[in-house]
Design brief:
By secondary structure, the protein is mainly beta. Helix content is 14%, strand content 40%. It is globular.
């Protein structure tokens, strides 16, 4: 199998019709290349999601490159909603690119006046404010081949001794997306859908969950009873997903015309932001800590 790294600030993943958007990928994310044809590539993402990508949206790399990226520990992610990569470590410098939260960059040795020298996936070097990135927690060491198929490797779960901190981090990241408009297949603070929202919150905390609004075997989220739900756990509805934040409240990205964005709603009829339609159709819950 061939491998690649996304070299655009953002790239859309498409379905088989090459028109329907199914996912959004960010600079620095790894893909496995399953097939190439007339400017398109069928790929599998570093979280096991398959679709079609324009062939110029990624640059080739080897499996060894990805393993080295994991081992060297120099890969960081953009932690703010957006971050400009500057040509020089100066506030008045020109911008080389604007990257969304979750984009991956490689740290270079130089630190200058609150900026860090970074390498972009397209080969350019620039400077990022030190307050705008965090240390990456997930890994690329997920892809392996067995015959003609690619499999997603199960990850380690958060240690129970870190449960309280992990749940706090999840809900904190979730609230950073409040007010973001709804966008089908989106994952950025510019526009996000329900499963893109929950996926990104977990990614920031180092856990790769399934990209769609469903519980899927082989991924870390396990089904639990609704009575067991704690902050940070996931709530599943038909075709929809949300994150529970406590006190009968949940945060989600909804295409409902009354909200059309990332908002907080309640499962309690006593609250003014109660959504009867969702309360009536809540079907299951999931957690990565069991």
């Amino acid at each position: 199998m061939e491998y690649g790294i996304i070299n655009k600030p953002a790239a859309w993943l498409y379905g088989e019709d090459l028109e329907s958007r199914t996912d959004e990928l960010f600079m620095g994310w790894a893909v496995g290349v399953l097939q190439k044809d007339r400017g398109w590539a069928k790929i599998v993402t570093h979280y096991g999601y398959t679709g079609y990508l324009r062939a110029d949206a990624f640059c080739p790399c080897t499996k060894e490159d990805l393993a080295n990226r994991d081992e060297c520990g120099r890969t960081v992610f953009v932690s703010r909603a957006f971050a400009d990569i500057m040509a020089e470590p100066k506030v008045r410098s020109s911008s080389l690119a604007t990257l969304a939260r979750g984009s991956f960059l490689t740290l270079l040795p130089e630190v200058a006046e609150g900026y860090r020298n970074v390498l972009l996936a397209d080969g350019r070097e620039g400077y990022l404010p030190c307050v705008s990135y965090g240390l990456r927690r997930d890994r690329d060491g997920y892809l392996y081949e067995d015959g003609q198929e690619t499999y997603f490797l199960r990850q380690r779960r958060p240690a129970r001794r870190q449960e309280a901190l992990f749940r706090k981090q999840l809900t904190a990241y979730a609230k950073r997306y409040l007010g973001t408009q709804y966008r089908w297949a989106g994952k950025s603070p510019e526009g996000i859908d329900c499963s893109g929202f929950t996926f990104m919150c977990y990614l920031m905390c180092g856990i790769l969950i399934y990209r769609d609004a469903a519980l899927k075997a082989g991924y870390p989220v396990q089904k639990i009873r609704l009575s067991q739900v704690k902050p940070g756990d996931l709530l599943y509805f038909p075709g929809h997903i949300a994150m529970y934040i406590g006190n009968y409240r949940y945060i989600h990205a909804t295409g409902h015309t009354g909200s059309f964005g990332c908002v907080i709603n309640s499962l309690s009829p006593k609250d003014p932001d109660f959504r009867q339609d969702l309360a009536d159709t809540l079907s299951s819950a999931g957690t990565v800590i069991w």
